[in-house]
């Protein structure tokens, strides 16, 4: 493996900082499965109040959080509505079909967003011939949509439309805190309109572990049963919760730096011939190398040889994600490497 000095593959690449490791080492712990872990309980109360929901449950991963939400909201044969580029459809191993027996209605729309009209048109008629429309899933920020922030009014309209048809609404808020920092709106302003919300601690927040699912007390009671069934109940998980608490104290406000770095990176890439840069809202920068006449893979291989890397999201589409472990200076260096590679590889 090549040495990757500037890892822009994802904001999951962060390693716990020294003070975070100290918080982990000092954590008060108990048996999480019996709800006796004081650090986990503290994190749940804090996150529930941040997201303006009654109750919360701690989970090992975001995928488990999303899938438990699907399992609680839906019955086999139901249909869920989500954007075609959503994590739930693209990156969770086909779990809605494999675990919940749920059908998917995938919507289109620019930047990972869809409209209330698209929801209206997707809802099934409700005859015995149809699957039953049951759930709408919104992703904030829309990752593969370019880290796009759903504007509050747009989101409200989609949720209102879902309510009109008696559908449940779930928010995949893996990067909800990025949306909150970018828009200046409290996370709860987005989350409280949903029946269930998942937030992640291993993305921009820089913890090594942890996702939280929130909702009503009744929803979380059902979620706990699925957590037990799926093997997500834990023991001294306070060590992980301590990292998440540390992240809430120290790593939320600083997301602003990641956003500035992403914008700076996008500006620098825009000046490079043959690179088409997509709009940037938060910490994600998508770009396309089609005009260089080479593949995303070839381009990324050349980046890796020079100590940096992107994620690949199509034949010629790549993604950079800024995070805690990438400095402003490294962003400038990464842009120089892109320029070098673009010049060297032009066919
Ligand atoms: C990372 C992510 C998830 C959860 O993925 P895990 O790998 O299980 O942590 C869900 N939704 C989005 C939008 C994500 O970026």
Structural descriptors:
14 helices; 347 residues; four-stranded antiparallel β-sheet; alpha/beta
Ligand set: pyridoxal-5'-phosphate
For the residues shown, what is the average pLDDT?
Answer: 97
Please state the overall shape, judged from the principal axes of the Cα atoms. globular
Q: What's the oligomerization state? A: single chain
One letter per element, helices H and strands E, the order comes to: EHHEHEHHEHEHEHHEEHHHEEHEEEH
Q: How many DSSP-defined strands?
A: 13
Poorly predicted runs of 5 or more residues: none
Strand content: 15-25%
**Distance N terminus to C terminus?**
27 Å
Question: How many DSSP H or I helices?
Answer: 14
Percent of residues in helices comes to: 40-55%
- Spatial extent as radius of gyration: 20 Å
Q: Mind summarizing the main beta sheet?
A: 7 strands, mixed
What structural category do the secondary elements indicate? alpha/beta
Side-by-side strand order of the widest sheet: 2-8-7-6-5-3-4
